[in-house]
Amino acid sequence: MTDSTTVTQRSADSSVDVSNPSSARIRLVVLFGGRSAEHDVSRVSAGHVMRAIDPARYDVVPVGITRDGDWQLAEAAAAMLSEGRAQELPASIDVAGPAVSPTEIAADPARPANQTGPANESHPNSQPSPGNAANQPSRAPTGQRTVVIPVLHGPNGEDGTIQGLLELARLPYVGAGVLGSAVAMDKTMAKTVLDAHGIPQPRWRALSTADLSTPGLAEQLLDQLGPVLFIKPANMGSSIGVSRATDVDGVLAALEEAARYDERFVVEEGIGTPDDRVRELEVGVLGNLSPRASVVGEIVPAAEFYDYEDKYADGAARTVIPAEIDESLQTHIQELAIRTFQALRAEGMARVDVFLAPDANSSTATGGHTTGTGRVLVNEINTLPGFTPISMFPMLWRSSGLDYPQLIDELIRLAIERHDRRSHFETGR
């Protein structure tokens, strides 16, 4: 069912080999938490990322960002990592710890003083404690490479904000750059770009808080896009703030809910019916200049749509990997995912979500690959997908031949490759 060359071919993006145990150790700064409504999801993802990192090749510095935006050395996680107890990390990583400066982390990322190695030879067995000078980050050994893994979902984490800081600090980091992150995060901008590239999507309309006072707005939306609407904050993920509406009161309530999270919203037509359900398919993409796609997976929601509870709370949604689709359709979806990835200037990784819409209910959608079972429409792209045990991105790549630790290695390799490639451009100095 899968084009093995699409899935298994190693991209020619780089000669960097992070899998070689003889190569120099790399310091990984794992940034997690953040001010977003996805703070809790980030803490869970960070734990799984840190458990998957090979301690023989990487020194890990866990840096948590509080809901108020304070940067802290995640003290408990740092102690467990330094003691070789990564597999005992809790399901959700605590951000609490001594304050660290974002500029110091960016300019010279550090690790806890109790971590063994050249940076703290004078205090090899010291334990972190609040108020202790030894608890403060120490400097990296000369020549040690640093890579940042921003496990920061939502605004300020995957919208180009932290990426800009890391660019200024000249540090390689995992995931899309400033432009790709910003455009992909803002659903109105992403959909505008995809329209310009001729990539098929459900019909949609962009709104802002200034539009909410428009007389008869709900009626207009139902008339233009109805009878089923999905209303989303423009800059939010994990289905937070997303509502399904079928009447005027429902639309007004959904707009009010979306306005809790953003001042801009996207209203989309609903595809499918209860009797003729739309299929929700997802594919992972890895790479920089030469991206490749994973196998295609399917989400079977337990609710009316794949909401936050389905994704993270009760785990009632069912996943089918690989999806039960024919080879031609899978190849088309993989190619469409790569086109979407490239159109939005994504890099490193992304998860692309598509709908397989029943023909009878997709006649108003913009274009799409028509098959014997329906029409393929791009729903969204996520440039920093979840990394929990039930997250689709790592499961898709596991089914494609990359287990979790190998996936982390590949993401680090891609981060270094991009950074080194771009460092050769003239800056005008």
Give the SSE order as H and E letters: HEHEEHHEHHHEHEEHEEEHEHEEEHH
| Gross geometry | globular
Please state the CA-atom Rg, rounded to the nearest Å: 22 Å
Largest sheet: 6 strands, antiparallel
**Strand content range:** 15-25%
The CATH C-level class name of the largest domain: Alpha Beta
Unreliable residue runs: 1-16, 107-139, 306-314, 360-367
Write a structural description.
- The structure is a single chain.
- With 429 residues, the protein is α+β, with helices and mostly antiparallel strands.
- It folds into three domains: 4-175, 3-Layer(aba) Sandwich (Rossmann fold), CATH 3.40.50.20; 192-200 and 273-401, ATP-grasp fold, B domain (D-amino Acid Aminotransferase, Chain A, domain 1); 203-269, 2-Layer Sandwich (Dna Ligase, domain 1).
- Helices cover 30% and strands 21% of the residues.
- Strands 11-10-9-12-14-13 form a six-stranded antiparallel sheet.
- The N and C termini lie far apart (52 Å).
- Mean pLDDT is 82; it is low at 1-16, 107-139, 306-314 and 360-367.
